[in-house]
UniProtKB/TrEMBL annotation:
GO BP term (any one): 'de novo' pyrimidine nucleobase biosynthetic process
Domain Orotidine 5'-phosphate decarboxylase, chain residue ranges per copy: 7-228
Protein species of origin: Halobacillus litoralis
Protein name: Orotidine 5'-phosphate decarboxylase
EC number: 4.1.1.23
EC class of the enzyme, as a word: lyase
Length: 241
């Protein structure tokens, strides 16, 4: 049975595993769902996954694979053997690659098959970039919808998209939507162009969020984590006391 996405993944944007684990412990965040991205995984390798698992964390391994189908299948087979919970590919890799990714996860899975997400358009991209740099002459929202419907055909479990496009994904596919670019009102955008609040994410149909700097750089990261999670779940908490 497929596991469900957790409501909030804290992005471990740290240079070393020791830094990440120390931060989690100091701010009473041990055991929360986390996202391990390229920076940390390429530095530490599989050891950081094992260390986090020992501390009870569910792990979204955010490597955004994008390569020829057979390479992605073999890579996913190896990643699945580490007992990760969520992993992703770029939807731009095409249908055959997405199917191969799913197959690799099934081949390498131990206790459960990891959730497979397809990245649509990065939140650091905008319409101008699509047209001038990638030569994609379609509205960004149409591109996200197209990638999402393609992913839905390939056995992918969900997509990574901005909050702005989550509503489109939920309307046209059966996929889960995980949304980065989350900021509390007044928060900085940093290098992301399409951002939103946790409340807006919920309203647009997001199933889960990824938050990094807004938590990491807060004066009290533990409190900020809980505040963002509560803001996202507030409606369901009121409905189901």
């Amino acid at each position: 049975m497929l596991k469900k996405l957790k409501p909030l993944y804290f992005a471990l944007d740290f240079q070393t595993g020791d830094e990440a684990l120390d931060f989690l412990e100091r701010h009473h965040l041990t055991g929360i769902p986390v996202k391990v991205g390229m920076e940390l995984f390429y530095k530490e390798g599989p050891s950081i996954i094992h260390r986090l698992k020992e501390n009870g964390h569910e792990i979204f391994l955010d490597l955004k694979l994008h390569d020829i189908p057979e390479t992605v299948r073999r890579a996913m087979r190896g990643l699945a053997s580490m007992n990760i919970d969520v992993v992703n590919v770029h939807a731009q890799g095409g249908e055959e690659m997405m199917r191969s990714a799913k197959l690799g996860l099934e081949e390498g899975a131990q206790d459960h098959v990891p959730i497979l997400l397809a990245v649509t358009i990065l939140t650091s991209s905008d319409q101008k970039m699509l047209e001038e740099e990638l030569l994609i002459d379609h509205p960004l929202t149409d591109v996200v919808k197209h990638y999402g419907t393609r992913a839905d055909k390939c056995g992918v479990d969900g997509v990574v998209c901005s909050v702005e496009e989550a509503e489109i994904i939920k309307k046209h596919t059966a996929l889960a939507a995980l949304t980065p670019g989350i900021r509390l009102p007044g928060g900085e955008k940093h290098d992301q162009k399409r951002v939103a609040t946790p409340e807006k994410a919920r309203e647009n149909g997001s199933d889960a969020m990824v938050v990094g700097r807004a938590i990491r750089d807060a004066e009290k990261p533990g409190e900020m984590y809980r505040k963002i999670k509560e803001a996202f779940q507030h409606e369901s908490i009121n409905t189901h006391p």
